[in-house]
Description:
The chain is mainly β. The protein has one domain. 9% of the residues lie in helices and 51% in strands. Strand 5 and strand 6 form a beta hairpin.
Amino acid sequence: MSTVTFEVxxxxxxxxxxxxxxxxxxxxxxxxxxxxxxDNYHVVIYILNDSSPVPSNTxxxxxxxxxxxxxxxxxxxxxxxxxxxxxxxCYLNSQSxxxxxxxxxxxxxxxxxx
Length: 114
């Protein structure tokens, strides 16, 4: 089992009419993905079409790469987190890849936007 936590340093978003990816023998259709990079690791968040099959998340430690497959309605959550929070971290787990996630650093209760 391998787990990694890294700070997301940069991200990029690709939006297209329809892209496809294969994972675990499942071909998924998606209109967008978000690529988050740290110093050594990266994660690709695939934003799936509503009708697309949902493959399992992955983490391949040797490639320092993880995936998160998310429904289209969560796209805005990921973008909002990346644009408005700092620091943002990524957690990847090879044994339980469904736990792969982005999350924020600790913030004081009641903190609000200025």
